[in-house]
Amino acid sequence: MHHPTFPTFRSTSLPNPTKQNRASPFDLQLKRDSGFQAGEGPITPPMSPGHSEEDDGSISVDTEPRYSGHRHEIPIDIDAKVYSTEAGPQGESRHRGSDERMDVDAVRPSSTSPRPPARHLEDEPTHVHKGSIKLTDFEVKGTLGTGTFGRVLLVRLRSSSSPSTPQNCFAMKVLRKTEIVRLRQVEHVNAERYILSRVRHPFIVDLHATFQDSLNIYMLLSYVPGGELFTHLRRAQRFTADVTRFYLATIILALKYLHSFNIIYRDLKPENLLLDSRGYLRLTDFGFAKIVDDRTWTLCGTPEYLAPEIIQSDGHGKAADWWACGILCYEMMVGYPPFFDETPYGIYEKILKGKIQWPKEMDRLSKELIKAFLHPDRSKRLGNLIGGAQDVLEHPWFRGVDWEALERREIRAPIIPHVTSLDDTRHFSRLPLPPVEEIPGLIREEQPPPLLQQFDPMAYQFLEF
User: Fold this and answer.
1) Average pLDDT, the chain
2) What is the pLDDT of residue 77?
3) Strand pairing category for 263-264 and 150-157
4) Do 176 and 149 contact (CB within 8 A), yes or no?
5) Angle of helix 318-334 relative to helix 241-259, nearest 10 degrees?
6) 402 an active-site residue?
7) CB within 8 A of 330, min separation 6: which ones?
8) Closest alpha carbon to 303 in 248, 354, 346
9) Which residue spans within 279-395 are E strands per DSSP?
């Protein structure tokens, strides 16, 4: 069957002035758009009539290239996700923008009344261990990925520390404190810790503990060994409706859970979905997640997945996550997203125009579901109607799905990753270990500073770690 040729870059960055080649989306040597040159400044998205030029025009987006393809392993985006799968030639990783004018979420008054959450996150118990384990209890086994201001390591809990623990392999996310401060990501990093420390769901990655030393903050996360859904999708080129239904259903259950706390995720894409050893998805990278009772105005995320209201700075909420579900559903079934271009600005224009090319082989019900998710009017968008997430569960496309059995993980997954042990890293990049001086707290216990030096302004910004 003949497929049209489209540019394959997921434009996860501001535009690069260098010329890029075009290729088929079905070429497995897929390259993501590369990052912009420092100092060129962010692109200004198309404005809505009510947009003010006084608003901060900075953009939080992922900015480095990602590669996927046969016999290539891709590193992860540390800042934008937990760790990587399949790596590119030089171990390139994608990360959020290096522009120092990183924006901070702003909440503005709205004409609509805020919706109270079904439950409050502050009422949930924290699942993060405090004081029971320390950094030196872990042995570094490998590097899973590297990013802008950190890396993710595979670590093993030493047997003498907790012999009764059934899981002793973890992903340790290491972030350099000076870079977090320089890029003005302190609020986002602290929000990620707060949210992950209290949420618990079978389709969301678990945060077990956090630490800090003189250089870094550390997040101890579940090690999910099956790799990114992005990698498996590129290998398969596209998924059938049944395979797509399985994965989309798990994502919908995760979003329904998050939305019950008024948490919006804002970074749904195949790269942020990891497969566990049984083939079930785990949602990762909560760097853009936020508790929003009404709306927020930050322009952040991956261009192909941005809802129109984000691009137009009209304020966005849970409806933006449901829009992203439509984009993801289309990408899984077709092999590439419905709106893409070689530059983010071109992507924004196509999103606002809303014209979708439908493959002839796509069935009517699948098309109706995607159209319902991609309704430009968020008040009419599936998932954001009066019935909320329940409307999605009851959509005819999901007829026959046993939602309770799925949440109990009683249904066999369509793809079972080949994993031989708890610390199997075949689905991740093989990168060298970091120099010991860059992870001092993992090597030896640091001595407390002299009394006059005990006030560390850098550590003060991460008191919860």
Assistant:
1) 78
2) 38
3) unpaired
4) yes
5) 170
6) no
7) 337, 338, 356, 370, 374
8) 346
9) 281-283, 290-291, 300-301
pLDDT digits (tens, 9 = 90+) for 31-74: 343 332 223 333 344 443 333 333 333 344 443 333 233 323 32
> In residues, how long is the chain?
465
Q: Enumerate the domain spans of the chain.
A: 121-225+420-460
Residue with tokens 């490998």: 142
The residue from 33, 103, 267, 276 that is catalytic is 267
Hey, which residues does 165 pair with through a beta bridge? Answer: none
Closest C-alpha to 272, from 10, 2, 5 = 10
Q: Are 378 and 319 in contact (CB under 8 A)?
A: yes
Closest to 253 in 3D by CA, of 408, 363, 82: 408
pLDDT digits (tens, 9 = 90+) for 199-224: 999 999 999 999 999 899 999 999 99
Nearest-Å Rg of the Cα atoms of the chain is 21
Amino acid at 226: G
The greatest distance separating any two alpha carbons of the chain, rounded to the nearest whole angstrom, comes to 72
DSSP label at 236?
H
CATH number of the structural domain 121-225+420-460: 3.30.200.20
Phi, psi of 272 (to 5 degrees): -100, 15
For tokens 């496309």, name the residue: 397
173 is known to lie in a ligand binding site:
yes
Q: What is the pLDDT of residue 2?
A: 46
Mean pLDDT of 400-417: 97
- Residue bearing tokens 């596209």: 238
pLDDT band at 348 (very low <50, low <70, confident <90, very high): very high
